Each structure stands twice: as C-alpha cells, then as structure tokens.
C-alpha cells in the first residue's frame, strides 16, 4: 500500500508541474469542479496549486 500512495503523490506532482506550465488547474468547486486560470483567478489558482503540492508531498513522504 505504501507504493500506491507514493505513486499517487508522484502523479499529483506531475499534474502540479503541468498546471504550472499551462497556467490552468482543475479543482473541485461547488458540486462539480472548475478550472482556475492564472490570469483570471490568481488567488484561487495559486492556492489550489499550493494545496495540491502539499498533498503531493504528504502522499510521498508521510503516507
């Protein structure tokens, strides 16, 4: 089970890098989800990106 969490953490880290490069990130907002763009919603974009990066680190190093 340890390897599964590490794999999920690495995949999430790859998504964080991809979202940083593309400038948009998809996250849950309300009932479904929403895409946050760096130029349109910078606060939501960066907070989502930081949250995903912290979750990725926790999956790799803690679980």
Short structural summary:
65% of the residues lie in helices and 13% in strands. It contains two helices and two strands; from the N terminus they run H-E-E-H.
Which features characterize this protein?
single chain, 63 residues, alpha+beta, two-stranded antiparallel ribbon, 2 helices, 2 strands, elongated
Furnish the topology, listing elements before pairings.
Elements: H1 2-22, E1 24-27, E2 34-37, H2 42-61
Antiparallel strand pairs: 1-2
Describe, in plain words, how this protein is organized in 3D.
The model has no long low-confidence stretch (mean pLDDT 94). This protein is an alpha+beta fold and 63 residues long. Strands 1-2 form a two-stranded antiparallel sheet. The longest helix has 21 residues. It starts with a helix and ends with a helix. It is built from 2 helices and 2 strands, in the order αββα.
């Amino acid at each position: 089970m340890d390897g599964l969490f590490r794999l999920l953490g690495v995949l999430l880290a790859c998504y964080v890098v991809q979202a940083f490069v593309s400038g948009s990130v998809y996250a849950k907002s309300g009932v479904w989800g929403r895409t946050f763009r760096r130029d349109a919603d910078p606060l939501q974009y960066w907070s989502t990106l930081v949250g995903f990066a912290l979750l990725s680190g926790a999956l790799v190093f803690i679980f």
